[in-house]
Structures are given as C-alpha cells and as structure tokens.
Amino acid sequence: MSRPTTPPPTTSAPTSRSPLTPEQVRKISYPKEINRLKAKAIRDQKEAEARRAGQTNTPLRTPSGFAVAGQKRAHVSISPSSVPTSSRDARNGNNGSSASDATKRPRKDDIQAAQKFTKFVDYDFSKMTDTKGGFLTAEDDPHNKALHASASASASGQEKPAHMTLKEWERQQLLRSLRDQKAGPFEPGISVLRQGGETKVCRECGSLEIDWKWEDVFRCRVCNACKEKLPEKYSLLTKTEAREDYLLTDPELKDEELLPHLERPNPHKSTWNNMMLYLRFQVEEYAFSARKWGSPGALDAEFAKREAEKKRRKEEKFRTKLRDLKKRTRVEAYRRSRAKGGGGGGGDGEGAQFGDDVGGRAGKHRHQWGRTVENPETGESVKTCVDCGMEVEELEF
User: CA 51, 70, 54: angle at the middle one, nearest 5?
Assistant: First the structure.
C-alpha cells in the first residue's frame, strides 16, 4: 500500500490589470501642484473681486503669482475685525463660531490656559513704595506716611512737575534752597527784597551778617565772628551735659519755649536719635534764675550734696556686700575650728571658741580677749585682745 502524499498547491492564473491612464498618473504624481493651482485661482478670484469693490489693499504680484518684496500689508488685512472665516482660533473652540466671538470667554469644553495663569494681580509699580520690607501701595495702608512719600514729594516740589522743563525746575530748586538758607538775595539784614520792618543786627557787635539759623532756632541774633570770640557764652551744649552739669530735668530740656534746641544728626551712629544742642548762655540763665537754683553757688551746693549722697549710697552698698561675705567666711572658719578642736587629744579643745588658742601650742602668742563692744560705725560686735590690740568681729547666733 502506497503512503499518502500532500497534493501540490494549485497555482492560479495571474489577473490581468488594465494600465493607468495618463490622467490617473497625473493625479497621483502631481497632487501638490493641483492644490497650489486651485489656491492660486481662488486667490486671484478674491483679488479681482476686491479690485472691483474699490479696495486697494491687495498686494502687487509678479506674472508668476508671487508677491512683490518690500510691500507692507494694510492694517485692515490683519485686524481682528476682518479675520477670514477659514482662519481657525483655539479660543473659539470647535463649534464653528465666527471670528467676532474670538474675544469671548471660553467655555469649559474649550481649550483654556493653565491653572497657574488664570489668577494674577495687576500692580501699578508707579504707585508702589519700597518699604524695605516689601513693595506696598497707599491703598494697602492709608495711614502709613511712608507710603505717601511720592505724593508728598510732588506736592512739596521735590519732584519735577510735568509742565516744567529741567532747567526751570533746577532754577526753582536753587531759589528755594537760597530762601531756606537765607543766602544771596534772601540774606537777613542786607536783603534787597525786604520791605520795611526792624533791621536785624548782631547783639554783640551790631553786624548785619548774623547767623540766620540761630536767629530762627534760638531767637538769638549773633554773627559768626562773635560766636568764635565768645565761646564761654555762645558754645553749644549737648543734652547730657546740660542734664549732668546744670542738673536740669528731661521735661525742662524738651520744652522748646523754655529752652530752644538745635537738632543735628548723631555723630556716633546715624540710626540713633538726633543730637539736641542747647545754647550755653540760655541754659545758664535758666539754671541760675529763681525758677531753678537761684545762683551759681546754690547750684554748686546742690551738686556737692548729690555727689555726697551718691558716694554714701555707693559705700553703703559696698559695706553690705562685704558684711555678707564676712558672714559666709566666718561660718566656714567656725565650722573648721570646731572640727579641728574636737578631733584633737587635748581636753581644752572641746570647748574652744573662734579666736581662742586651740591645741595648747607653746611658744606662740595667746590672745586675751576683752569684753565685746559694738562698733558705732559698722554696728558689729567687736572684741579686742588686751596684749596685742587685735580686733575681731564677733557674730552672735
């Protein structure tokens, strides 16, 4: 019996295909060219309609269809009002809305911005002030004067007005500085702009060139030459010197009607309070008057009295501390003496007291203590040796 075999596969006859026509070959080979020609025809048609309508914003083109280089498009052609219907905008979504809805708020199903860009605060940096702790505006804290610095500066004339040129503003600043310093044509006594009134002269020499600052602050008319010539009268005193040397109080020194003062920046540190300077003869007039001490002798007596009281309090404090130290030292010495006297072999060591001879040491001086008396200066109990005169303070428990 023969073994079964697999029959060979049947081969089908090849199917005959008709050849491609030239039109099909052209469509397959040149699809981009066809699309370009269609777009060019649509564009030419729109430009022709625009020319017929009288619109001249269409660009010039070469015979090949390309736009001539160097032309600027009209604003109408790129403005949002003339967006073509074929232009796609992500803000409009996929609902086929017109270009006029491009600025409308997007819906939930439309494309939206990221969440971190949806909330922001718009600040006007021209109205903000650097407070060294953050940039704040006057609306944040309307009662803070530091935030109104720019407004106050413009109101006071420290900032140049918008209607004024730079040269005019500099001239105005110069005149304001001369008026404040009373220099140049505004100098007191010799000013040509003064209209009547009393002529202000120096109280010492009668000079017209007085110090205007002292006249305004101290109400004292004196020239610079007399200030240098009479330092014992016109020198300046600090607040500490007036308080310590003339024994004046802080309320008296802060009263500008009583004692006018001149403020200067602190020379030790600029961040500290301003230095207050007083005129020497004004301080002395008040200190030596009947309203305060009456005379220089009374001031010296009060100064000596306060110094003595200060010394007494200092010594009393020292004696108190020394007394406490002695008490602590005596207690320790008494305990050591009792322990040493009780541990020895002698019988007299058991009843030994502080200051007595302990242990019966021969060849050494033995104190013979007298009666205990009270020291009138310190108030302590003291006993004295009859032989050598040694004094020992005694505590009574």
Answer: 15
